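Sequence only, no structure available. Ideas?
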Amino acid sequence: MRRAFSSRAMAEIAATIRNCESRHRGEIRFVVEGSLDLSALWRDQSARERALEVFSLLRVWDTEHNNGILIYLLFADRDVEIIADRGIHRRVDGPEWEHICRGMEESFRRGEFARGVIEGIQAVSRHLIRHFPVAGENPNELSDRPVIL
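Reply:
I predicted one. Tokens follow.
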């Protein structure tokens, strides 16, 4: 996982998030987790359930316009989940997020991990630009730094 997401790749991902967020009022977090721990496996926890847990732990929901988005990658399974807070979820339906996830997973199958994440962030941002354009102040409410769990 560290080879796929080197410090250089993580810096590129952070820069992409920062650049994209300058064009909309949404907040994007990217998290990659190597694998689920034994207790999660024992409970048969899905990547989706874990993504919801991480969404809460990182307080992605804690934005003024309820427009935070978590892009979660369970690396062992190459499974991507997008969790959108209620402000953006009302405007963009599930199939749109699924389409982005499947595109990222296709890049991962080719071994293009950083590229897949960057393209996913850009695709998410296109929705945020449409529904939450910059108008006046645009504070950065959540860290742009990717997280490795």
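Residues 33 and 149 are 5 Å apart (CA to CA).
Hope that gets you unstuck.
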